[in-house]
Amino acid sequence: MKRIVFAAIAAALFTFSLWPQSLQDFEKKVTEFTLKNGMHFIVVERHEAPVLAFNTYVNVGSVDDPSGSTGLAHMFEHMAFKGTEQIGTTNWPAEKRAMQQTEEDYDALQQEQDKGLHADPEKVKRLQARVKADIDSAGKYVIPNLYPQIIETNGGVGLNAETGLDATQYFYQFPSNRTELWFLLESERFYAPVFREFYKERSVVREERRMRVESEPQGELQESFLATAFEAHPYHHSPGGWASDIESLRLDDAIRFYKKFYVPQNINVAIVGDIDPKRARTLAEKYFGVIPSGPNPPLVHTVEPPQNGERRVEIDTEAQPIELIGYKRPDQLSPDDPVFDVISEILSGGRTGTIYKELVRDKKLALAAGAAPTYPSGKYPNMFIVYVAPNMGKSLDECEKALYGVVDRLKTQKVDDETLKRVKTKLRADLIRKLDSNSGLAAELNFYYVSFGDWKKLFTSIDDYDKITADDVMRVAKQYFIPQTRTIGRLVPLPASPATEEGAKSK
User: How far is C-alpha 496 from the chain's CA centre?
Assistant: First the structure.
């Protein structure tokens, strides 16, 4: 146990300084293989400490949520921690029967509710009570949180997952002497997941939405901003799901989603640390090779129509006013993608960024201001955004005008060589810093492999930055930062009530 604890601490604290100096050097440490069922693995040897970082990257996100069932990608992420037929239950056959009874009674409840005005209120009430009793009955067999407890008691750290617009990732770190345990646990939750406590977890997901969107003005702004910017493409959906959709999700919806998207050829695994690649392949074939392949998941075919005019959305709030300005841009496969990264760094690269220097430091118009090159995600055409939070006594209109001044200057004045060099150096350093840890490297390898078809793009992307010129920056600014494709979202302060104004005067 002492060795396990030490390994866990090392995983959290150890920083690797031996960053390879070239792609050729790094390739010697990398082993790739694809199982017969289509699941791909990237294994990187780093033997400096007896720890391993695992990242399972599933090429599905909330952009793939079916219309009317948004939130499903997020729901399955929660389900993946609920265990298996062997882990998390005291009596799986009995629990399974109770879960089946829950679905039968829920079907009857839904059929009655779907009658609308003709539904029998008393029958609905009886069925609701029966469903609740079924859920409680199934819950009696559940051993809560057993799956994560097994990981933690074996020295695992950083156990977590995240559902993005374009992908879902599962990750944690283990001592290297627990390698086979990871293969067993991770393969089981994708081979034969049990959707236990589905409706309890649905309530958790609904509460997360309440906290992050409905009770958080910035979350509400982002949701309305996306819904305004994207009319057709599913980027307009709330990433965590719409409230009514979440409340209506059923177990069968989640099972269909899992069967459609969690097929081996849609899953990529990166393992970085103290590992023998040959043993990794043997274990992968033993544990993951039994997962049957299925049809390739469907792609999102909806294309956002051209935007031919500025769009605006405003939300009244008592919170700090904020403004988001988004310009439509192509997806991450565009040759201009690295140019947007450079422009973002020029505008908002810390205290040297143009937006910070002008709006925050010099003119004192804003408390905070910045930019992001890819929003809300990059797999499909998206937006380049700039944002600002006005200073006390300053208006959103003043800040918006100042932002346009900074952005429009990119179209008329070339960026100087010193600024361009500084920005490229910082972008390179930021990427290398992420790769300094096992977990960071595993995440980046998966992202580049899935997004660009080759993890080596991780290296060549750094070279892409070096090729960007001041002319590229000006060309991209002129082409994309135009009013016709602009969407503006605001948190607007509520007007003071007469009573508040009288109180202020008396003081």
Answer: 38
